[in-house]
Give the backbone structure.
Amino acid sequence: MKNHEDIVKTLMGRQGVKTELERIEQEEGQLLDALLKARQDAGLTQADVAKLMGTQAPAVARLERSLATGKHSPSLTTLRRYVKACGKKLELRVR
């Protein structure tokens, strides 16, 4: 039976998989940078943002960590609430 490492190695060998993964990581990294900058510019901690969002600080930490690790993509609703808590507005573009 293959373990997780074996499966990842197999998938990374397939044409286009590595390129797509790098693209996703870059996009999520840019989103994380923008969110962290918005929070920093607002002078807010994770706990502050959580309170303004009506949630707990660990939820905000998970949100930020999920973008850093690429293990989960937050919903647009969650992103809007986070950005609004930072006094910003979420704008999406399709290129």
User: Anything to note?
Assistant: The chain has a mean pLDDT of 88. Residues 4-85 form a domain with the 434 Repressor (Amino-terminal Domain) fold (CATH 1.10.260.40).
